[in-house]
Backbone:
């Protein structure tokens, strides 16, 4: 599998591998550092982002190989490396300094960097949308029709819920309904007290992997793939609406938090 991925896109394979190595380093730092940012170990966020970036890079490396327009794929690969490389480096630097990366407006420099991260995310998302469009308009390598549609639908849902991140950026917070929630589910830290926009963001973006995998290994049918995508989209939308209403996806009793 690794050999095939290298052959499909060595650029994105190498970038993904670097992020896996970084994730291992961050995991080690979590064990030895007691620095805390927003209620969590300072190195937890870089760890999660490094894993996510590696998974995204390898996923798009696998899919984009199927397109005839490999020149566009090469440009896209560099867009991924530059935008997400900038993001993981900045998040890591801020973790080392004990400072927030996202939503940090405590100085003009940090506010500018927050804006730049948002711009980078939009550029990456729009380029991913372009790759998705190529799966409709470009010649692709022979594959089952249901799998082709799974890739198309996975990319569409990824783009929609990646852009949902813009709402968090506009609010300078992923929390809805109250302020200052530093409790949440293990690892992901999704709030168990208030609305959390990260839930829909996470679920929707991982349609990129889940829909094609289930279509290829389980469903093996075009209509079934569409049904899966619809159910998945409804789930992601439901979690988004729950967050907008200020409701957590899972609720546990706990301390009161200052109302907005």
Residues:
């Amino acid at each position: 599998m690794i050999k095939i991925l290298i052959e499909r896109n060595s650029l994105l394979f190498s970038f993904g591998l670097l992020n896996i190595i970084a994730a291992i380093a961050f995991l080690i730092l979590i064990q030895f550092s007691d620095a805390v940012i927003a209620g969590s170990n300072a190195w937890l966020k870089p760890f999660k982002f490094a894993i996510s970036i590696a998974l995204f890079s390898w996923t798009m490396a696998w899919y984009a190989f199927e397109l005839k327009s490999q020149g566009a794929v090469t440009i896209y690969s560099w867009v991924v490396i530059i935008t997400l490389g900038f993001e993981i480096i900045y998040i890591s630097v801020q973790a080392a300094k004990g400072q927030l990366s996202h939503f940090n407006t405590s100085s003009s420099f940090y506010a500018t960097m927050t804006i730049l991260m948002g711009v980078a995310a939009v550029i990456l998302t729009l380029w991913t949308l372009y790759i998705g469009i190529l799966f409709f308009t470009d010649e692709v390598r022979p594959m089952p029709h249901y799998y082709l549609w799974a890739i198309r639908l996975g990319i569409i849902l990824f783009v929609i819920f990646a852009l949902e991140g813009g709402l968090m950026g506009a609010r300078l917070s992923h929390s809805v309904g109250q302020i200052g929630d530093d409790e949440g589910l293990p690892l992901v830290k999704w709030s168990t007290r208030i609305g959390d926009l990260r839930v829909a963001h996470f679920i929707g973006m991982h349609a990129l992997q889940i829909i094609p995998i289930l279509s290829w290994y389980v469903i093996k049918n075009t209509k079934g793939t569409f049904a899966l995508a619809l159910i998945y989209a409804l789930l992601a939308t439901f979690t988004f609406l729950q967050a907008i209403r200020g409701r957590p996806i899972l609720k546990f009793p706990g301390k009161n938090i200052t109302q907005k």
Q: What stands out?
A: The CA atoms of residues 166 and 187 lie 23 Å apart. Residues 256-260 have pLDDT under 50 and may be disordered. The two ends are 50 Å apart (CA to CA).
